[in-house]
Amino acid sequence: MSEPQKRGRGRPPKLDRQAALRDAMTLFWENGYEGTTFDDLIGKMSISPSSFYNAFGSKERLYREATECFVEGSRKWIFDSLFQEGVTARTAFSNLFEAVATQFTNPDMPRGCMVSLSGTHQGSSLTSLREMMVDIRAGTETYFAERIRKGISEGDVPADVDVDGHAAFLNTLLRGLAVQARDGASREKLARIAKAGLDGMPGRLSA
After folding, report:
1. pLDDT digits (tens, 9 = 90+) for 8-37
2. Within 10 A of 93 (CB to CB), how many other CB atoms are there?
3. Which of 97, 114, 104, 112 is nearest to 193 (CA)?
4. How many domains does one find in the chain?
5. Is the residue at 205 inside a domain?
6. Which of the residues 64, 93, 118, 140 has an alpha carbon 20 to 30 A from that of 41?
7. Candidate ranges 2-6, 9-13, 135-139; pick with highest mean pLDDT
8. Where residue 116 sits, what CATH number does that domain have?
């Protein structure tokens, strides 16, 4: 009778860090920081606790990295819309909000915007995470102001327009659309809201 072969332990499968990071991003996007548990994360990412700590250090560090992943992905379509050459500022913002309506209702991802919906209600122990999200949201407003100033320099936006006020309004419109999307609004409804917002702006941008 032959002896049974010994089963080698072998090496654990190599962690696909980017795939694991994207999985974590969708969980945080859907549930927020406090609504996402450690068990949720290692289950979604299909990794052991030790692999988690070796790769990401802590839940907070992972959240920061997942947020960066989201921002990096969003920045491309935002900039492609805002800073396309040969279009007016009004057309650029119209194109941006059409993209927003599509991105916020993408059936393959959580609805809305991770940055808009995260970090608004967190305890004092998570102040640094809340401040990170505040800074990112403020950064978007800065991009909007930059695009309006570009329109002024190119002559398609009135020189006396309230740049900061318009940029703040557009940023507020963007964040409101994220809430609408999370509440189930369709792409078409988001597009209508955005158009109404652009059309109704005081001292609105030139067509």
Report:
1. 444 455 788 899 999 999 999 999 998 999
2. 25
3. 97
4. 1
5. no
6. 140
7. 135-139
8. 1.10.357.10
